[in-house]
Amino acid sequence: MAYTETTRTSYGQRVGNSFKGIGGGILLFIAGTILLWWNEGRAVKTTKMLNEAQKVCIEMPNPDKIDPAMEGELVCATAFATTQDSLIDKQFNFGATAIALKRNVQYYQWVEHSETETKDKIGGAQETTTTYTYSKEWVSSPINSSEFKDPDYKNVNSVLTTIQPEEQWAENVSFGAYKLNESLIHQITSGEAVELNIDEEILKALDKSLARTGKKDSLSYVHQEGSTLYIGRNSSSPEVGDVQVYWLKTVPAKATIISVVDGDTFKAFKAKNGKTFQTLVMGKKSADEIFESEHQGNKILTWILRILGIMLVVGGLKRVFNFLETLLKVLPFLANILGWGVGVVCTVVGVVWSLIVIALAWLFYRPVLGIALLVVAAGLIWFFASRGKGKKAAQVETPAPPKE
């Protein structure tokens, strides 16, 4: 059963909230503007750094032998990343020889979901109806059900025990005759499940600790099933409070790196503009393939941040001028018309402003493209201005209908 909660906000409260939102709107507008400017600079610097790195990068023909001639060079090398380090999960006293060992924990809990619907009332008040529904799901941390809205679901959650997730990384990972630095090690993603071999005595001790806390009445709640430690009655029929723990290990695998040779290890490449770069990808890749992927990733990130910046600018303007719509909420129909108009104007102004900011940033970093963007922004301003004048002229010149 869904649970609904209805609240009413008076016209005066809505007007007051809209005026309070002006400050937040200004902050959003400023934040969006700063993000747009910073993003263009970041994109240009990253592109220049990648171009500089690509020009000096050379292929390392044989990483299985340390070559003094490669010292200080930015190289692209492919080799087998492996380790002899043993990683131990001390709480459960088992481990594996691996590049990384990660303990993941999930809890079976009731989860609250909500959907909100608002309606404007004649006179300016607003009625908000929130519908709450509940479902059982596996989540990464226990959920405090005392804050649930439906009284029937308050305090329904519990956990048999809490276990912290954990992550360990090997310190010594060889790459042919070389060693990988920490940054490169953490980019290895050859993960696979760990077949558990937890000592029976540890499982019994965990089971008994649950019994002592009064959380169960029989010593049959801890099960070791393949790669999962399940704490509960039956893993095929989970109950609220059950916990499952599973481990993943990062195993030795072939990888390709682009990094600067530093003795028997590697360090990041530092470009003239101060930006640094080194990367590891799984499998065998050429330098051209990696740099193409890096350029593409930079373009995608740039557009994501551009869109986010424009949304912040437009959203900020809408919040600043939202009070105009709110003042007319005594007549919802008129308020909706005005709100639509304000939304269109704020969107147009926000997009034009964003193009100007981007263009100015490009003028600072790359003048030719910056001028082109300024021309586009000026064209948009002229287009909308001329359309407005054209409509006014048409209205003035339209003759009155002849009298019969």
Number of helices: 7
The count of strands amounts to 19
Overall 3D geometry? flat
Number of domains: 2
Distance between the termini: 67 Å
N-to-C SSE series?
EHEEEEEEEEEHEHEEEEEEEEHHHH
Q: What is the CA-based Rg, rounded? A: 31 Å
Low-confidence stretches: none
Query: Roughly what fraction of the amino acids lie in strands?
Result: 25-35%
**Mean pLDDT across all amino acids:** 87
Structural class, please? alpha+beta
Helix content: 40-55%
Major sheet summary line: 8 strands, antiparallel
Short description:
The chain is 42% helix and 27% strand. The chain contains seven helices and 19 strands.
What keywords describe this structure?
single chain, 404 residues, 2 domains, seven-stranded mixed β-sheet, 42% helix
Can you walk through the features of this model?
The chain has 404 residues and is of the alpha+beta class. The protein contains seven helices and 19 strands. It has helices at 11-56, 182-185, 200-212, 287-320, 322-327, 332-365, 367-397, and strands at 3-9, 58-59, 74-83, 86-89, 94-97, 100-120, 126-139, 166-169, 173-175, 178-179, 191-193, 222-225, 228-231, 243-250, 253-262, 265-267, 269-270, 276-277, 279-282. A hairpin with a 2-residue loop joins β12 (222-225) and β13 (228-231). α1 packs parallel to α6 (332-365) and α4 packs across α6 (332-365).
Topology:
Layout: E1 3-9, H1 11-56, E2 58-59, E3 74-83, E4 86-89, E5 94-97, E6 100-120, E7 126-139, E8 166-169, E9 173-175, E10 178-179, H2 182-185, E11 191-193, H3 200-212, E12 222-225, E13 228-231, E14 243-250, E15 253-262, E16 265-267, E17 269-270, E18 276-277, E19 279-282, H4 287-320, H5 322-327, H6 332-365, H7 367-397
Parallel strand pairs: 2-3
Antiparallel strand pairs: 1-7, 3-9, 3-15, 4-5, 6-7, 6-8, 6-14, 9-10, 11-14, 12-13, 13-14, 15-16, 15-19, 17-18
